[in-house]
Design a protein that fits this description.
This protein is mainly α.
Length: 118
């Protein structure tokens, strides 16, 4: 009988050892998965931060490009207005000179171009 009790004792000890090993394995795996999740969360947070940085940089670059475009348009408008003003000044000078010449030589024109006097 003693051998049977010993075998049961050994069997029980072996089952307890297997249960302890199983529990230890499960605990280690849970810790590992928790650590993996923590790392994954950290990586996800870093990724979100990187995406946010990229969005901010894209917006900054867009604003910079928009500002350059606006300045270029303002310069083009200013150049066009300056050219139009210069053209108006030239036309005014030409009209003034034409009027002066007509006043000065108008009588001669009437002599040689009778139709001009009508």
């Amino acid at each position: 009988m003693r051998a049977k009790a010993y075998q049961e004792h050994v069997k029980r000890e072996r089952m307890l050892e297997e249960q302890r090993i199983e529990d230890e394995f499960k605990e280690q795996m849970l810790k590992k998965f928790a650590e993996d999740d923590r790392i994954e969360q950290m990586n996800a947070q870093k990724r979100r931060m990187k995406e946010l940085e990229h969005k901010k940089e894209v917006e900054r670059l867009w604003q910079e490009k928009l500002e350059m475009y606006k300045k270029q348009r303002e310069m083009e408008i200013a150049e066009r207005e300056a050219a139009e003003l210069e053209e108006r000044k030239k036309r005014d000078i030409i009209e003034q000179e034409k009027a002066k010449l007509l006043e000065e030589y108008g009588s001669l024109l009437k002599e040689y171009h009778p139709k001009a006097s009508t």
